[in-house]
Design brief:
The protein is an alpha/beta fold and 268 residues long. It has two domains: 231 residues, Phosphoenolpyruvate-binding domains (TIM Barrel); 33 residues. Helices cover 44% and strands 14% of the residues. An eight-stranded parallel beta barrel has the order 1-2-3-4-5-6-7-8, surrounded by six helices. Helix 1 links the parallel strand 1 and strand 2. The two termini are 33 Å apart.
Length: 268
């Protein structure tokens, strides 16, 4: 399941959920964590669980849920209420160690057995938001066969290292690069941090270019207006597709000529 865009949706807002499933996001993340105040957690669990069961396997974006972090102590109740047949993935926030992933996996196995679900059918995206998580990025990406992507959360990361978020993102350049490299080394997708200024769509375009240049394969979104831009920025352009076809054709001719290498437009 390749993800260019993953859109966060507050789990306690039915109208937003109903709107989100009609958008062109590759995945929607029904959020039980940051988007939901403490006094709304239980209501959000019930609404998210109901939405997952009601949506079924109809034509809609992939369905993920961002549960609450291990440190919050709320994740057990989340799993009991939102894991149903149509759930495709879990985003695990504040992921820092392999044990964080294994803890969720063990509980999920029990829930899958209770419901008669396919073992291992629900994917994981560990969300890295701390210095410790960055240092353990490759281990997190390799922690389970369920892991399909690593995500980066820059706002909490900046707070963790006591850095002030900047427009140019200088303070997050290293963790972005590190997380992307770790994801590629583990052969999973790399999903970039959201662009938080929802009114600055030109800034979003520039940020997508930076992320793609660093090796990210997709990006999280926090507003529907960001989805189409992210999809476009993380899709091959017509020029890139045309060039790739030329490369394949040139290499095919080289092989037919008994050559191990060739050139195209003056480049090897």
């Amino acid at each position: 399941m390749p993800f260019r865009s993953m859109l966060f949706v507050p789990g306690n807002n039915v109208k937003m959920i109903e709107k989100a499933v009609k958008l062109e996001a590759d995945a929607i993340i029904l959020d039980l964590e940051d988007a939901v105040p403490m006094n709304e957690k239980e209501n959000a669990r019930l609404l998210v669980g109901d939405s997952i069961r009601r949506l079924g396997s109809s034509n809609h974006p992939h369905l993920f849920v961002r549960i609450n972090s291990i440190s919050s102590g709320l994740y057990r109740e989340d799993l009991e209420k939102v894991v149903w047949e149509n759930l495709e993935g879990l985003m695990i926030p504040k992921s820092e160690t392999v044990n964080d992933v294994k803890t969720i996996e063990e509980l999920l196995k029990k829930r899958e057995e209770e419901l008669g679900l396919e073992p291992g059918g629900i994917a994981f995206t560990p969300l890295i938001e701390t210095a410790k998580g960055v240092l353990h990025a490759y281990e997190l990406a390799s922690a389970s066969r369920r892991v399909v992507a690593l995500g980066f959360g820059s706002v909490d990361f900046a707070a963790d290292i006591r850095a002030k978020p900047s427009v140019d993102g200088f303070e997050i350049h290293y963790p972005r690069a590190h997380i992307s490299i770790a994801a590629h080394a583990a052969r999973v997708q790399a999903i970039d941090t959201p662009w938080v200024n929802i009114t600055d769509l030109d800034g979003l375009v520039k940020d997508c270019r930076v992320a793609r240049q660093l090796g990210f394969t997709g990006k999280m979104a926090i507003h529907p207006s960001q989805v189409d831009i992210i999809n476009r920025m993380f899709s091959p352009t017509d020029e890139e597709v045309a060039y790739a076809k030329k490369v394949v054709e040139a290499f095919k001719k080289a092989l037919e000529a008994g050559l191990g290498a060739t050139s195209l437009n003056g480049k090897m």
